[in-house]
Amino acid sequence: MVETSTEMDAPPGSLDHILRSTDAIRDELGVESVSLDIVRDPALFEREREAIFGKVWLKVATEWELPRPGDYKVKSIAVADASVIIVRGKDGTVRAFHNVCTHRGNRIVSSNDFETSGNARANVFSCRFHGWVFSTDGTLRSVPMEEGFGSLDKDCLGLKEIACDVWQGFIFINFVDEPDQTLGDYLGDFGKLFAGFPYHEATTAYRYSTVLDCNWKVALFAFSEGYHVPTIHAGSLPGFTGLEHTDFKLMGPHASSTIYGGGMDAAQSTNTFAGLLAGSPLHKPKPDQLPPNINPMRREDFQFEFPNIFPNFLIHLAAGCGYPGMAYFTHQFWPLEHGKTLWEGINYFWPAQNAAEDVAQRHVNALHRNAWLEDTATMEDTFAGIMSGVLDTVELMDLEFMIRHAARTVRTYIDV
Ligand code: FES
Ligand SMILES: [Fe+2]
To answer: Exposed site from 72, 75, 140, 160, fewest CB < 10 Å?
Structure first.
């Protein structure tokens, strides 16, 4: 399948082998036009369902969403025709189950939304159809009028478990019963490069989601490059100057790069709030908190680390350096249909300690939301243009290498 590294004989602990110069990127990924068939062709989307979303590890939750025994969330994953319960058991372990009652297939937890919101906690899960009761570890606990079934092997009728593992507090599932790769193996060098950041401390989360009329890769690609920042974000980020997009990294199916630059604090109001957060030991820029191989020179003009975790998860590390006071933000792109995608964006901040910090964070969050509106506004237009059939290929420059890499990875998985 996909290699996890190209040079395995690098010194232990060093991640130098994943770094690429622009020339190396061009040599490895090529410079030719890239075919649009993987975006345009509904038949290829059908292959992606099984060969990608049915096979690889997918992030579905975070540990800090489910801090206590019995805390759970339900997530609908249309691309896998699945509804998934993710729950912390009484033993503290997080597990994932198909949200399907083993009696006659009813949903255990009804949910019409893409995911349950807010905190939900259960001692047990009880199916409202006939009252079968399941423990939070999935075991079938009780069956009303059990004697009426003749013989019932309750030990074999627990909720159907889905492979589930945790990396740095991010909870991933895999729909293969016995996945070929562990989560650690799948993440490979990405897992090492991004480990150690205190993700769990940034517990103030602002969430956004919307359904976009575009293929999921159009959304992924739009968030995979910084080339567009000076143009599409001229409205929300007028002070963003001196963009330097560098430190290219390839890590098997995953890739990343770093954005350094002059910042984005032109508006007077933003300067005021940025200053307030910069003066706080908790919220000030903390490049030293970054994992050692990200911004290894500890440059003060670091803005973001900018990775794609294949297939649909992005963690943009800022450590308070990019948007003022923001620890990191994430994106996910969930295919609903060939031309319909659920986008989820979450901004994570360290908890405000007073009202002034809270207002400052909300200002920064709104600034970023506006940038996201500018980003998402291009996606339906781009997809419509692609689907018109006028172009068979697109041109990609060096700063768009993660699009080239993701497109190649998709082709490898679906074998075209
Ligand atoms: S379908 Fe759940 S108890 Fe009957
Ligand atoms: Fe953008």
So the answer is: 160
